[in-house]
Amino acid sequence: MTSPSKLHVPAVPARPGEAPDFSYVRISPAGAVDRPPPDVPVRGTVALAEDLVRVLDDQHRAVGPWNPQLPAETLRAGLRHMLLTRVFDDRMQRTQRQGRITFYVRSYGEEAVSVASAMALDARDMLFPSYRNQGLQLVRGVPLVDLMCQLLSNTRDMCKGRQLPVMYHSAERRIFSISGNLATQFPQAVGWAMAAAIKGESDIAAAWIGEGSTAEADFHHALLFAKVYRAPVILNVVNNQWAISTFQGFAGGEQRSFAARGPGVGIAGLRVDGNDFLAVHAATSWAAERARAGQGATLIELVTYRAGAHSTSDDPSRYRPKDDFDFWPLGDPIERLKQHLIALDEWSEAQHAALQAELDAHVAAEWKAANAFGTLNDGPKLDPSLMFDDVFETLPEHLRRQRDQLAAERAAAVASASESRTEV
């Protein structure tokens, strides 16, 4: 008699009230992973997709073949971008709690994922972010005022009041519109990269999703097209261990890495310490060189940790230990880069404190400037007639009539209010 089949349910390492447990995270020693040339065959990346590319060791030294040998000036710029991202996030989180914006998503603990990647890419490369990639916006020079006005949906809102907060875009800076629908940016990035190759351009695309989104069909569609057509694209999976309240094991990260899916379908795979600025920069540069040389796509798994809540609508203390980030074995990306610069005698605690104060004041000033364009509860408000724009090249007759009716009603309301003031 055969035994009954059994269903495997992935284990969650620790729940609220239990001690944090990260024993499941496979960590390679810093500097221990080989760096093959970017034109290595896909089969030569199988081990890279399971090991962990690391550069910074426990003494904050840059070691091993993946060390990008960045100048101190670049490292200080990266530290500034990451710290500005965190200061901006903290301010917007407090602002939401005060009821001055409706929703926010922080990238606390994941700042290197965006900042190092953006700094490693060319300015003309097209970025397809998720909603936790604020660092991409800041490295590309999107003004904080513009981001804040989008959060406020005021008269300077880049989305004209049509999008959720945090769903930024910047055509000028080659940053695609963020979507709340998970994983859509992966096939979009592959398609854009294919078009760039068809046109003979040297620009590549890069996209970011969370590990939970790898369970979406769009993820698999993107990998298939990227493999078949050797699309010049970098596909980043940000494995921050939690998809809202669902542990990464439920998305398939328990037995094999997410990066292993790359070689599994025929594209290169890299598994990288996402809290190591130098490792992320080096891996992105390697993948970009590979893409520009016609060697195709790379799937990069960035191993990091979501230190805070999924969003302002989430309470992580309901599904994981409160102090778990304190025990995350890959540390804090900002602290690690700061200590590396201090070890190089290129930074100090006093300089860091001064930078923190400078950025606090900068973010406060930008918030004050953003409020001049309208707040959540007070004017000025967006023009309602904007709802008729940007959909049709030629406005259909029924919408034209509605637009004209709205204009007439608003004009009548203004006239009535003027008459009332005259009578008073």
Q: How much is the radius of gyration in Å?
A: 24 Å
> Biggest sheet, open or closed, and with what strands and sense?
5 strands, parallel
- Strand residues, percent: 5-15%
Mean pLDDT: 96
Order of helices and strands: HHEHHHEHEEEHEHEHHH
Structural class: alpha/beta
Number of strands: 7
For the record, give the distance between the C-alpha atoms at the N and C termini, rounded to a whole number. Answer: 95 Å
Shape, per Cα inertia axes? globular
Low-confidence runs: none
* SS summary, helix count: 11
Percent helix range: 25-40%
Oligomer: single chain
Trace the largest sheet across and list its strands.
1-2-3-7-6
Task: Please provide a written account of the structure.
It is a single chain. The protein has 424 residues and is an alpha/beta fold. It is built from eleven helices and seven strands. It has a five-stranded parallel sheet with strand order 1-2-3-7-6, with helices on both faces. A two-stranded antiparallel ribbon has the order 4-5. Strand 2 (205-210), helix 6 and strand 3 form a beta-alpha-beta unit. It is globular. The protein starts with 71 loop residues before the first helix and ends with a helix.
Task: Quickly describe the structure.
The chain is of the alpha/beta class and 424 residues long. It has eleven helices and seven strands.
